[in-house]
From TrEMBL:
Function (record text): Part of the binding-protein-dependent transport system for phosphate; probably responsible for the translocation of the substrate across the membrane.
Intracellular or extracellular location(s): Cell membrane
Protein name: Phosphate transport system permease protein
Residue span of region Disordered: 1-26
Annotated signal sequence range: none
Coiled coil: none
UniProt-listed GO biological process terms: phosphate ion transport
Gene name per UniProt: pstC
Superkingdom classification of source: Bacteria
ABC transmembrane type-1 domain residues: 89-320
């Protein structure tokens, strides 16, 4: 029996497209662009280093002074530099964390509504309004917080003291009452949450819109509901982006000055009482309040507190980069 003949296909030779030779002008532009990009990156590092050097030099008199309390009236008698820097760091971090706890869930909810629930026209309009909220000056937020928000939330703060006063965060004063007027850290944190809301919302919205369409269609093909789609496909993909947005908002809350200065009744205590006045103060607001009337050693002390804020902000950004780098491989993007 004859074996069937097999047809052999001739090998296909790949067609090589001729490489386009770059012209001397293109090579010159490429070289120039590379120099500009490298120079821009070096300029950022140089600016950061110059700010750090300036803060260290100007803060050195306060760092080496032995008796600051004798020359600076707002330092407690017998206190040192840390007796001022410590409470200010505590108040700054506490106000930023409370504002972040309030803002992040609301911002993520708004971003999900814009990206996956709202009709297109409503989503465009709402996104424009959220972006417009970021353009409002902080002094306007401060006026709104003092004249509008504070009187409205006073009954709410008193309710929290009456029924949740056993929790240290919601404890009242010595008489078991919330401060009236409520120029307290909780009111300040609510205003800060409103201020950082558009930043977190805008970044989270753009991240959620980048969710791969195939991931969403696969979830729907498996019978997932809208919430299950968001939980299984959208949120895992956007986790690192939401973390980045939260860190951006945290940086804004840490450095906010005017709104805090106008609303918060200052104090230099390590206190978790959010509904009692004259307990905490932030670094930026303290610098703005005392810089003009301070003497030379007082200005050096304020700059030393600014150095502490600089270090805190730097550490927050480094931590954010580490979190993002750790979680990007598990975000669902790959």
């Amino acid at each position: 029996m004859a074996s069937p003949t097999t047809a052999t296909t001739p090998p296909v030779t790949p067609v090589r497209t001729p490489r386009r030779r770059s012209r001397p002008a293109d090579r010159g532009l490429d070289r120039s662009f590379r120099y500009v990009a490298v120079g821009s990156g070096m300029l950022i590092l140089a600016t950061l280093a110059s700010v750090a050097i300036f803060l260290i030099i100007e803060a050195m008199p306060a760092l080496t002074h032995e008796d600051l309390a004798s020359e600076i009236p707002w330092i407690p008698k017998g206190g040192d530099l840390w007796s001022v820097v410590g409470p200010l760091i505590f108040g700054t971090i506490l106000a930023a964390i409370v504002s972040l706890v309030v803002a992040v869930p609301v911002a993520v909810g708004i971003a999900l509504f814009i990206s996956h629930y709202a009709p297109r026209r409503m989503a465009n309009a709402l996104g424009y309004v959220v972006d417009l909220l970021a353009a409002i000056p902080s002094v306007v937020f401060g006026l709104w917080g003092v004249m509008v928000l504070a009187p409205k939330v006073q009954p709410v703060w008193q309710f929290l003291v009456d029924y949740l006063g056993w929790i240290p965060l919601f404890a009242g004063d010595a008489h078991g009452n919330a401060s009236n007027p409520p120029r307290v850290l909780m009111t300040t944190s609510i205003v800060l949450a409103v201020m950082i809301l558009p930043i977190i919302t805008a970044v989270s919205r753009e991240v959620f819109l980048q969710t791969p369409r195939l991931h969403e269609e696969a979830a729907l093909a498996l019978g997932a509901t809208r919430w299950e789609l968001i939980r299984m496909a959208v949120l895992p993909f956007g986790r690192s982006g939401v973390t980045s947005a939260a860190m951006l908002g945290l940086g804004r809350a840490l450095g906010e000055t005017m709104a805090v200065l106008m609303i918060l009744s200052p104090g230099l205590l390590y206190s978790f009482k959010l509904l009692v006045a004259s307990q905490q103060q932030t670094i930026a607001a303290n610098i703005a309040a005392r810089f003009n009337d301070a003497n030379d050693i007082g200005r050096s002390t304020l700059i030393a507190t600014g150095l502490a804020l600089f270090v805190i902000t730097l550490l927050v950004n480094l931590a954010a980069r580490a979190i993002i780098a750790r979680r990007k491989d598990f975000s669902g993007a790959n």
